[in-house]
Amino acid sequence: QVQLVESGGGLVQPGGSLRLSCAASGFSLDVYAAGWFRLAPGKEREVVSCISSSMGSTYHSDSVKGRFTISRDNAKNMVYLQKNSLKPEDTAVYYCAADPQVRLCPGDSGAWGQGTQVTVSS
Hints:
This protein is mostly beta strands. The chain has strands spanning 3-7, 10-12, 18-25, 33-39, 46-51, 58-60, 68-73, 78-83, 92-99, 111-112, 116-120. The chain is built from no helices and eleven strands.
């Protein structure tokens, strides 16, 4: 079974840091583009960061550029999102996704995790 499981979310103060992890099972992650998305209450799903299967290309949205970093370890079937200098507007459920049919950012046809809640508040 294809499965992605996110972890590492929680409550953090503004300016703090978190590292999200995504564990893949049931498939070989090394041929999949991977990415992180987020969904905040009342807002549309937003692309946060993406990374190609070869790790040669990455994408970060303007809102997180310079603060978040996506990485992957294909040997461990893991994807990570290092989140620094967190802001209240980063509060959302964060989802991991993987897709063999795209080069960089997963689409709806890919595999998606269940999400992990991140709350940034003082």
